[in-house]
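User: Hey, quick favor. My workstation is busy. Could you predict this chain's structure for me?
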Amino acid sequence: MVYVLGWTLNYLVQALWYLGARNRVVFFPVLFVIGGIIFVRYSGTDTFMYELTLRSVLEGDASALIEGWEPGFVFLAKLLLSLTGSEVLALRAIGLVFTLLLLAFVLRADKTELRLFALYILPVFAYQYGMNAVRAGLALATVLLAWQAMRRGKILEALLITMLAITFHYSMVLVAALIVISELKLGTRRSIVIIFVLALTAIFLVVLRYEYFEAKISLYRSYASPSLVSGLSRLGLVVLLWLYFALSGVSAKRSFFGFLLTVVPSVSFQALAFSSYAGLRLLELMTFVSPLLLLRDFDRHGEEPRSIFWLGVFVAGLVGVLATYRNFLTDYDGRMTGTLTPFLPYRTIFDYRP
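Assistant: No problem, here it is.
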């Protein structure tokens, strides 16, 4: 299977890294292969829907759907449509931008960031967010760059990049809020002011796009999760990451704070997922942000993440890969979602059009 090729190459490169080939260049072939899979695909649950919507924009008849999309994504989509003159090529170009953002992260990455990228971020998120939820994919890749800047003490740069991420997908407000809270000493005047500003920003965003959020809430109320066990694998990833963090020698206080930031919200979103698809979307965000939060704890205490923590990241990433492939198989030929462009069987723009 073509997806397995990308995953296998990624783990082979990671093995080379541990054997001494510690140069970021070794990750370039992985990004080239996975980026190629993303670019030439005619698969991905939402691919056909995105093309229909982009086609309506190209024909000057913007649908109600794109009016609800985030302004940064709309700007990028219209720019790529004007450059390519094709909704098919424009959507693939968005996948290319996603891959280039990941490449930018790798080019600037230190050894901690490269390990996280290869063991967890790339295998768990690349296909789903490069081929399917492309708005969220651009936002998540941009948040990675903001987190990277924050680790280097470039707070203004991190803030500006985060604001850009929010223009790709509004849900990044939740990710940004969790990262900011993790950086604060709760109870101080500064932390109260920052949390107050965050709350005002969220309220302003809701008021500004009230109709959009109202439509989303109505949609998710009527859109149930595929099954009662949906999301449990994602919750399992968060629990695994926190468990190995707790076992890595951190104090009970740090372990408890990590639990509050990662596991508690994830359990709440899992409870929501039993009745609404919205819970699954929020769980996805927690699987992304949890390792970022836990690694920042090591940074703040001037510590290198211990080997047992990296073992947990590897295990969580591998579980994530297996769960992702299982989801692909479950929806083989669109039998669960009804999509015309399922992940499996993998199709390309050269041999298939719905």
